[in-house]
Design brief:
Nucleotidyltransferase, domain 5; 11% strand; globular; 5 domains; alpha/beta; Rossmann fold
């Protein structure tokens, strides 16, 4: 932009973006179930506009309530439009308030539409030579484009000037009104000429130049289309009037007056917090923290903090004394790696009271780094304190610190609280439980992030290279914020007896057990995995050849675009589903359905399965094996799954397929060392047993109490047969019903799974509920309870919030209802396996057994057991797991033994 060139006036079509954001974005909601997606979309667009143009003049224009002059001209105008959806209507007020709080001039003018206000302002500015940018997705706005006025669509990241209008519509901007009058507008119920679409309208306008000329030459246009035109002559002037943007609306606002004001930070903080726009809230708080003069409330940042970097022995001894006298202190380690098996300690931090924290560096290595206390000296001095179970510590994700300290011969004890787990038990549905997110959510404070001190991506340096002036504040803040979070979270948790029990009796006792499992690792036969990789490669090549033979040409099986062309263009397979961009889908569920009738999709699925096994396991696992021990060390995550289930990563040991031969072969590579065996103990049908307990259905309780095959018993009930008359096919159907109902499967889903008509599947469901009325009552009551209180609970009191349970969007609400039914069962199963781990771990220690727990996979525990102790171990494991919980039906545990995991399972 030259010095004399004016900055553009930016006019935002708020109403257009509100609808487009609502329909284009997934149905987002906050933790209270309030819809937020449309607001998020529009505010994102506004923020991008402001960043891109830094406008000195801007306005956001919305339609006003009530009728406009077009309704008087034509009562049927927009008559076909459905009323605004309720979950969009509830977002209007928050959106208007946020726009206002952003300091953006906002206009709503009665009697006209937003388009008319935009047109009036745009032309007034253009007459004075000021460039105008109209941000909209509305095609009608193309009529305003000229040398001064252009359109941008922030949602599609496109812009349109005069040549752009010509390219998109095939006509000049000054012909757009005539074009719209001819084709009409079904969404606004504007009548056009019947059967005249864009191509015909463009052709006529190219030939005659204008609507008036087309009308004047109507008699010359032949055929049925000419008849349609002549029969429409009377209403065409009205259509033109309806689609013409009115550019002479009397306005109090002049373009020069449309200047943005200073944002109302307090209001924005309120709304971003309410809508749970965490990133934007963090940006606001960071600005406020950087500018103390901008703080209007005490809630913007915590009280003033005093952080110290310890470099002298005297200072360290002073802090040691403080730590020994403290009833509780926060502790954290700073290291060189996220891999707990490789991480070296760079420093430690602690806080004994809010606002008072220290960082003790021991291994910062960079040119000019000050002299630091010796790491061995520091750790030896801290060891008695860290290993004292009576000195209570609080940390954030303490399992990591426990693992790292163990590498230095320190067994961290006295870990009374973990703020990550406090947050998780309070509300497991919160997306993140990391310290940065928790500080923002509970303290309204934006912490210094790791990337802020160490950089990002390829330029990121190790923490040992970070300057101590920067590192000291960052590390001390970690300890201070952890203590602040604990003081905020613990009273909330302690006030809910059942949640406190979950935290104290399940989650916290599990931390050292998981730490031990992780550090022990699992022995892996690398040579076997390499051999499996070669075999999978050969198998994939054979499948690839079959695919090429069937398709008649070679192509990249991993390319969705090339696969689309083969399946839908060349082979003309039916298109069952399209992607968001309108392309025929090659997603797994689509290929599975096509595979029922066509061989090629079946081969593609088989190829994908092999490829995933190879890349994820047989190729990757050998790279993750510790070269010294020959073991892989996974990380178990307590605070991820909303139901309380553990998950694992690097490597993920819980997703190795077990239903196909290739998946089971991978398990064969997980082996026991010489003189030991693997023992795998698995709960049998635990979720169905929990369903029996929760529903108190007499039929289910009786079947489990008598030790019957529950699927055969169900088949006998549903099909009205004696147990011995049930066929394998009928048992399979009953199994699908049993598990399907737990996961909220509909009759439609059951029909697809069993390959039967939907009516027959519905009969199965109806018969099931007739035979097991307790299950139906439980489901109905749980659904109603969830709607009433917004959450459900496990048998042990773990709470599972359902923010979408009362959502206006039926699809979103129904998913929440299915979750409400399933979550207590899955959550209770998660609680039971955790309690079993605690019980078995204590039994191993009590009996000084030569065995170790090495894996947890869903409802299964895996151990390495000395050959000499096998029988005692099997009995002890089974007893501990069966006694982990007392339900109305017995818990049954299947125990297997083998040289490898596959044999033992």
């Amino acid at each position: 932009m030259t010095r004399n060139q004016k900055k553009p006036l930016v006019l935002v079509d708020g109403s257009s973006y509100l609808y487009r954001a609502f329909h284009a974005l997934p149905p987002l909601s906050n933790s209270r179930g309030e819809a937020t997606g449309a607001v998020y979309g529009v505010i994102s667009m506004l923020r991008k506009l402001i960043t891109d143009y830094a406008p000195e003049h801007i306005a956001v224009i919305f339609d006003a309530k009530g009728k406009t002059f077009r309704d008087d001209l034509y009562p049927q105008y927009k008559a076909n439009r459905p009323p605004m959806p309720e979950d969009l209507r509830e977002q209007v007020t928050p959106l208007l308030e946020i726009v206002k709080a952003m300091g953006l001039p906002m206009l709503q003018v009665e009697g006209v539409e937003a388009d008319d206000v935009i047109g009036t302002l745009a032309q007034e500015a253009a007459r004075r030579g000021q460039p105008v940018i109209i941000s909209t997705g509305d095609k009608d706005m193309a009529q305003l484009v000229d040398e001064h006025i252009s359109l941008v669509n922030t949602m599609t990241n496109t812009s349109m000037d005069e040549s752009g209008v010509q390219e998109k519509f095939g006509v000049r901007p000054d012909q757009i009104v005539d074009y719209l009058a001819l084709v009409g507008d079904t969404s606004d119920n504007v009548p056009g000429v019947p059967k005249v679409g864009p191509k015909t309208a463009v052709k006529w306008l190219e030939e005659y130049g204008s609507l008036d000329a087309i009308i004047a030459n109507a008699e010359q246009i032949k055929g049925k289309i000419g008849e349609n035109l002549r029969s429409s002559l009377e209403q065409l002037p009205l259509s033109k009037q309806l689609v013409t943007i009115k550019c002479d609306v009397p306005l109090e606002q002049h373009p020069d007056n449309l200047r943005p004001a200073d944002p109302d930070r307090e209001a924005l903080i309120h709304w971003f917090k309410h809508m749970e726009f965490k990133t934007w809230l963090g940006d606001l708080l960071e600005d406020a923290q950087a500018d103390p003069a901008a703080r209007k409330t005490q809630e913007v940042a915590p009280a003033k903090a005093e952080y110290e970097t310890i470099l002298s022995e005297d200072a360290f001894k002073g802090w040691l004394q403080k730590l020994q006298q403290a009833s509780l202190f926060a502790f954290d380690t700073e290291t060189t790696s996220l891999d707990y098996m490789q991480a070296e300690i760079v420093g430690v931090s602690f806080a004994t009271e809010v606002g008072h924290a220290a960082y003790l560096p021991v291994a910062h290595r960079y040119p000019g780094a000050p002299e630091q206390l010796d790491r061995d000296y520091v750790l030896n001095a801290l060891k008695p304190l860290l290993e004292d179970p009576k000195r209570i510590k609080v940390g954030q994700h303490m399992k990591y610190d426990m693992n790292v300290l163990a590498r230095y011969g320190i067994e961290l004890q006295g870990v009374g609280y973990d703020t990550m787990l406090e947050s998780y038990v309070l509300d497991s549905t919160a997306t993140r439980h990391d310290m940065d997110s928790l500080a923002l959510k509970y303290l309204e404070y934006k912490t210094v992030h790791y990337e802020d001190v160490a950089g990002k991506g390829a330029k990121q340096i190790g923490f040992d290279e970070v300057d101590l002036e920067i590192a000291g504040h960052y590390a001390a803040e970690d300890a201070d914020i952890t203590l602040r979070l604990h003081e905020t979270l613990w009273p909330k948790l302690a006030g809910e007896e059942s949640l406190r029990m979950v935290f104290e009796k399940i989650e916290m006792p599990l931390v050292p057990i998981l730490s031990e499992i992780e550090r022990t690792g699992v022995l892996v036969d690398v040579d076997m995995l390499h051999a499996q990789s070669r075999e999978l490669e050969q198998h994939m090549r054979r499948i690839e050849k079959e695919v090429f033979d069937l398709s008649g040409e070679t192509f990249n099986l991993g390319s969705p675009k090339q696969l689309q062309a083969i399946l839908y263009e060349k082979l003309q397979l039916p298109i069952l589903k399209k992607t968001k961009t309108g392309q025929p889908s090659t997603a797994e569920d689509v290929l599975q359905e096509l595979a029922l009738d066509y061989p090629l999709p079946k081969l593609i699925l088989e190829y994908r399965g092999m490829s995933k096994l190879k890349s994820t396991y047989t190729d990757r696992l050998p790279e993750q094996v510790d070269p010294d021990s020959g073991r892989v060390h996974t990380s178990y995550h307590q605070a991820v799954a909303a139901t309380g289930r553990l998950s694992s990563s690097d490597p993920n040991l819980q997703n190795i397929p077990i239903r196909n031969e290739e998946g089971r072969r991978i398990r064969k590579a997980f082996v026991a060392p010489c003189g030991y065996r693997m023992v795998a103990a698995d709960y049998s049908q635990i979720e169905l047993r929990i369903m029996a307990h929760l529903s108190k259905d007499e039929g289910l309780l009786k079947a489990f109490a008598e030790g019957e095959d529950i699927h055969r018993a169900t088949a006998a009930e549903v099909f009205g047969l004696a147990r011995e008359q049930v066929t394998q096919e009928q048992r399979r159907s009953a199994k699908a019903i049993n598990f399907g109902l737990i996961y909220g499967m509909s009759a439609f889903g059951l029909a697809r799974q069993l390959g039967i008509e939907r009516g027959a599947a519905q009969e199965y469901v109806d018969l099931y509920f007739a035979r097991y009325p307790g299950v139906k009552n439980y489901m109905d009551q749980t659904r109603a309870l969830a709607h009433d209180q917004g959450y459900v609970e496990t048998v042990f009191g773990r709470r599972l919030y359902l923010p979408d349970i009362n959502a206006k969007n039926a699809q979103v609400r129904q998913y929440a209802e299915r979750t409400a039914i399933n979550a207590p069962m899955q959550g209770t199963a998660a609680d039971i396996i955790k309690l079993a781990m605690i019980k078995v771990h204590a039994w191993i220690a009590q009996h000084n057994m030569d065995m170790k727990m090495i894996m947890q996979v869903h409802d299964e525990l895996v151990f390495e057991v000395s050959d000499k102790e096998l029988e005692k171990a099997k009995e002890g494991i089974r007893n501990c797991m069966c006694e982990a919980a007392s339900l109305s039906v017995p818990l049954v545990v299947d125990v297997g033994v083998g040289k490898n995991w596959d044999e033992a399972h």
